[in-house]
Amino acid sequence: MSSVPRHSEEELRQQWAFLDALVDRQAASLKSGIQDPEEDDLAAPMVAADANYLEEISTLTQRVTTLEDERTTLLRRIDLSEEARIAAESARSAAEAARVAAESALAQERATAPKTIPPKSRRKTWWKRIRG
């Protein structure tokens, strides 16, 4: 072997830096659960896709929440309408009972009232006023 170094000091530093970066990248891959270096390339698109999915899920969740709120509002309106209908039927029934009672009372009053002859009109006709 010759005593002349095969690589310069700068080349050795570059190789060490490359090896350090490779070890760091592999350690990070192992910590994240990705062991194959080729999977590192797949991880970036999956992260972007995951972000899109999360955004879509968030949008869908908001829409479902809005629809559930609208459903709750509509069910409340239905309940209020039913209560109003029942109240209207009750009022209509009470009014009908009051009408029947009033008609009965009027008929009874007419039946028990003495038959009177209405008094004659006290007004004189124009002819009687002139004559005297």
Explain what you see:
Helices cover 80% and strands 0% of the residues. It has 132 residues and is mostly helical. The chain has one domain. The longest helix is centred in the middle third of the chain and has 76 residues. 0% of the residues are buried.
Task: Summarize it.
Helices cover 80% and strands 0% of the residues. With 132 residues, it is mainly alpha-helical.
Write the layout of secondary structure elements.
Layout: H1 9-32, H2 37-112, H3 126-131
Keywords:
132 residues, 0% strand, 80% helix, rod-shaped, mainly alpha
How confident is the prediction overall: mean pLDDT?
A: 82
The helix/strand order is: HHH
Q: How does the overall form come out from the CA principal axes?
A: rod-shaped
State the end-to-end CA separation: 170 Å
Number of helices: 3
User: What's the number of domains?
Assistant: 1
